[in-house]
Amino acid sequence: MNLHLQDKSVLVLASSQGIGRGIATAFAAEGARVLLFGRQEASLASVRDELRAAGGTADYCVGDVTRAEDLAAAAAKAESLHGPVYTLVNNCGGPPPGSFEAFDDDAWRSACDLTLLSYVRAIRHVLPQMRAQGGGRILNIASSSTKAVLDTLLLSNVFRTAILGLNKSLAREFAPSGILVNTLSPGKIATARVEITDASKAAKLGLSKEDLQAKQRAEIPLGRYGDVAEFAQLALFLGSPANTYVTGQNVMVDGGWSPVY
Question: pLDDT value at position 152?
């Protein structure tokens, strides 16, 4: 299937590792011109070199998703190097685990800046580029907590769910401009972040991480954690010109774990 991504300008946030890295790799393999974004320059440079060695076009911009000026710089650099951004992949690490009484106002503000406001700002910066070229694609990476809340992940439960309101509202507002907006909600995808949350949950339950993971695999109909490359394949389609009619959706990528409602 031709996804028509050749030479499309793609900006992927938090792409030095995990899901972001996997998505950036997939887009580069399809001929897109990818700008990586993250805080660790050494990691970004390593990913860039890897993508170039495989024949892809990739550059990077160092910055923090919680800093508005860094996101503005990334959008400008993507346009300068690769042309107007066609696909924006909003992605970020998650806020810390914990229960309600563990978080003060600063923790709530920080979680909002990280998980929700970063997406708002990134969209704001690429929107003029997308409108000027007659369309684009926006992908918002969320979490399976948008379908069923996850114990110990209160802040993520709240702000990942808020992304859905943004997603649906912008899908309707941007449709006349040819901009399609979707959310991808991963379940247990094998990443460093999942290892951390599994360890935290296991400690709370008095289990080893390995025993907890075995129990969680048994609860997933496919019987295993997902792979980053599997997740990236769906991101490729939804973020490409081949997707012409899917917008405003929250697509679960969780091996069938989430409830049916």
Answer: 80
pTM: 0.94
Q: Are strands 57-62 and 85-90 parallel, antiparallel or unpaired?
A: unpaired
The pLDDT of residue 259 is above 90: no
Region 15-29: mean pLDDT is 97
Identity of the amino acid at 205: L
Q: Count CB atoms within 10 A of the CB of residue 64.
A: 17
pLDDT at position 7: 97
Lookup: tokens for 93: 């690490």
Residue 248 CA to residue 155 CA, distance in Å, equals: 23
What is the Cα–Cα distance from 167 to 144, expressed in whole angstroms?
A: 15
Is 100 in contact with 154 (CB distance < 8 Å)?
yes
Residue 260 pLDDT > 70: no
What is the SS3 assignment for the chain?
A: CCCCCCCCEEEECCCCCHHHHHHHHHHHHCCCEEEEEECCHHHHHHHHHHHHHCCCEEEEEECCCCCHHHHHHHHHHHHHHHCCEEEEEECCCCCCCECHHHCCHHHHHHHHHHHHHHHHHHHHHHHHHHHHHCCEEEEEECCHHHCCCCCCEHHHHHHHHHHHHHHHHHHHHHHHHCEEEEEEEECCECCHHHHHHHHHHHHHHCCCHHHHHHHHHHHCCCCCCECHHHHHHHHHHHCCCCCCCCCCCEEEECCCCCCCC
